[in-house]
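Pipeline run #58 for the internal structure catalog. This entry was flagged by the ingest filter as a single-chain record with no existing model, so it goes straight to prediction. Upstream metadata was stripped on purpose; only the residue string is passed forward. Reviewer on rotation: M.T. Logging verbosity set to normal.
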Amino acid sequence: MATSKNTSNFGSQNGKAKSQVVAQIVRIVRKAGLNYQGWRYVAKKVRQACELRPAKKGRRLPKVLTAEEFRRFYQIVDRAEDVQHSLMLRLVFFTAVRVSELCKIEVADVDLENCQIFISQGKGSVDLLDFIGR
């Protein structure tokens, strides 16, 4: 029993010790009148001396619609009165072009025989050929 109290007590003492060290550093920085760049320098040196590394952030995966959700989506899209809206939504999903790239597509950019669309001035000012699935 005594050891479990000691270990839990040690954790809280360690946390208190860290906050005291941080408070001392803040006082020193304020007393020295350091600007932002000076504070960044001090913080960097403290991290190096204490061998501290920032925690890695987990990567979130994009949310993907299920097959049933896609079916329902396209059923609603197909019922749209404006054929252009249906066509634009299908192009966005099938080719993964950005909205700005979609808006710049001209009739001359579409090659129906080869199922290709020329995307001019894509991200990073790169020209692309996008293939349309049949």
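catalog note: Confidence is low (pLDDT under 50) at residues 1-11.
catalog note: The chain has two domains: 2-49, 67-131.
status: ready for reviewer M.T.
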